[in-house]
Amino acid sequence: MWERKARLSTAVIAAGALLSVSACGGGDGGGSEGEEPTAWVLNGGVWNEVEEDFEAWNEENPDQAFAVESFANDIYKDRIRQAVGSGEAPTLIVGWTGGGLLEYVEGDYVTDITEETEELRGRLIESVVANGEVDGSTYAVPMNNVQPVVMYYNQAVFDEAGIEVPTTWEETLEAVEVFNEQGVHPFALAGGSNWPLLMWASYLTDRIGGPEAFQAVVEGEEDAWSHPAIIEALERCQELVEAGAFDPGFASVVADNNEDAHLVADGKAAMVLQGSWVYSRLLEESPDFMETGNLGVTTFPEIEGGEGDPANIVGNPANFWSVSANASEGEQQAAVDYLSDWLFNDEYVDGMLETGNIPPLTGLEEKIAETEDPEFLNFTYETVTEAPSFQLSWDQAVDPAQVQVLLQSLSQVFRGEITPEEFATNMNEAQASE
Amino acid sequence: MALPAVAFFGIFALIPLIGVVVISFMEWNVLGSPEWVGLTNWEAVLFDRPFTWTALGLTVTFVIGSYLFQAPVALLLGVFMAGQQRYRALLAVLYFLPLLFSSVAVGLTFQSLFSPNYGLSAALPFEWLPNDWLANSDLVMWVMIFVVGWCFVPFHGLLYQAGVRQIPQSMYEAATIDGAGRLRQFFSITLPQLRYTIITSSTLMLVGSLTYFDLIYVLTGGQPADAVRILPLDMYVTGFASYNLGYASVIAVILVAIGLTLSLLLNVLSGSSKMDSDKAGA
Q: Which residues pair with A92 in a beta bridge?
C-alpha cells in the first residue's frame, strides 16, 4: 500500500506547489505578530552597502533593529508578491515602481509616506523621486543607486579594429561589419535572461518615437503596441540579429552571472548594452580588467531623423522602499524613522560611491570628483541629471500580468520566429484581456 | 498504524488538491481576494489557449523520451552494480553521486557547462560541441531529457541493483549447467525476475517526469516556451510569473488527472494489484 500512496502523492506534487500560496492566502496581519521590523533586500553589488547600512542602524537603534533577509533577484520577485498578497510582507518592501507599485497602492498594501519623507525627497533628484508617486502622493522612495542602461565598450578591442566607438546608427552598422570581419562579437547580449532584450527594444523605441510612444502603452490606450516607433524599433532589432551584431550564442547567455559583461571584459565582444550596476559587478568580479582602464562607457547611439532626444535614457531610476500597510504601528514607525532620519547618510553615500554606484542625490559633483575613479560616476551622474526623460524598464512599467507575454514575444522577435507586427498583436491582445 | 499515513496523506495531498480544484473556478492574481467565475477558466485553458495543447505535447515528448532514455540505462547499470566485477564498488559510488546533488546545483553546473562562451565548448576542441544547447528549439528538449536522466538514472539503478540481488543464485547455476549463455540468462532469468521492480521503477519514472519541474526551470526558465515549457512549468509560469492562479490551478488539476490515470493504468496493465509487496518496494 505504501507504494500506491507514494505514487498518488507524486501525482499531486503539482497541487502541493500551489498549496504554498493557497494556504497562506487568507491570512492577514501576519507581520504584526512579531514586533520586529523586517526588510528584504537583494544580494550582490550595491546591496552589500544596503546590508551594512542596516547593521549600522541596528547598532545605534537596538529598539528598532531590522531583521534583514537577502534574496537573489528572481527569487525575490517571485516571493514578494505572494508575501504582500497574503499579508506576510516585510515592513520595508523593495520595489521597482511602475505597474507593481500601482497594484500595491490600489490594494492598500503600502502606506502613504508623503509627509514623512518630504525632507528626504528634497535632497533627491526629482525625475527619480517622481516614480514613487501615485496620484500626487508618495508611496515609495528611492533607496539605492540610479540604474540607467548605458553602452559599455572595451577600448582595447576598438583600438585593435582601428575604429571609433559608434555614436549613430550608421556607425553602429559599420562597426558591426568590421568586428564580424575580425571575428569579434560586436555586441554581447544576455538573451537567455530575456530582459536584456528589453533594453534594446526600449532604447530604439525612445530614439525613434520619443517617450510618447511607450507612454501610450502605460496609459493603456487601445492598440498602443502597434505604434510605428515600436514596430520600427523591433525591425531594427531583427536587422541587427541578421547582420550578426550579437554573439551567435546570445540566446543561451544569461545575465545572472554577468556573462555578457564578462564577454566584453575578456575581449570576446566589443560592446554590451547593460545597466549601470554592471560597473560595480565588474569591479568585484574582474578587477584585473578594470585596472587596465579599457572599460569605456557611452550613450546609446543616435538615430538620424528620430523624434526622441538622444539624451533620453532608459533603465531603472533606482530601487524603492515602500512601507507595508500590514506591519504593526511600531514596525511602521521604525521604517519611517529609518527612511526619514537615516537613509542616504554620509557613510552610506560614500560607500556607494566607492563601489561605483550613484545615489540619486542632488549636488553630488564634488563628492564624485573626490572619488578614486570619477570618470564612470561622472558620466552616469551627468547622464541621469541631464536626461530629459528617464524611461522605466518596460517589464516594470507594464501590468505585472503582461510581463511574461512581453518577454516571451520579444524573445521570439529576436529569434526571428515572429514579426514585429505579430509581437504587437500578441501584446495588444494581452493588454485588452486585462 | 494507518492513522498517521492517512493524516499525512490528507494534509499534504488531499487538502491542497481540493484547494486547487476550488481555485480553478476562481479568478485570482495573488493580490486581493479570489472571485468565483465558474467554468470560465476551464473553457479558456482548454479551448481558447492553444499553448495548453503545445505544452501537453511537449509533456508527452518529455515523459516518453525520459522513459526511453532512463529505463534501459538504469536497468543495465543496476545489473552491473549487482555483480561481482573488479572496481564495481568504486564505480557504483561514482554512479550514485548525481543522486546526492541538489537539483539547483546540478542545473547551475550544467548551465555553465553548456554556456557557448565559457562552457565545455570553449574548453574542448570538438566541432559539434559549440551549439546553442539551452536555447535552440530543436535541441533543448533532448538536452533536458539527458540532464534529467543523468540525475535520476542512479536512483533507478539502485532499485534494479536491489532487485537483481534478490534473485536466487541457484537459478543462474542451474541455467549455466543447462548451457545457457549470459545473454540468455539475462533475458530468461534476470528480466522476468525483475518484473515488479520494473513496474515500480517505470511508474516512478513516468509519473515523476510528468510532474518534473526544478532542473528544467533552473536550466531554461521555461524558454523557449514552445520547445521546453512542459505542463508543470506552464503551471508555474502561469501562476507565479503571470499571476493567473485560476488558469494555473486548471493546469494543475489536469496534471493530477493525467498522473492518476497513468499510474492506475500501469497498475491495471501490469496486474500488480495481485502482487505481493515484499520485493517491489525495496
A: A39, A323
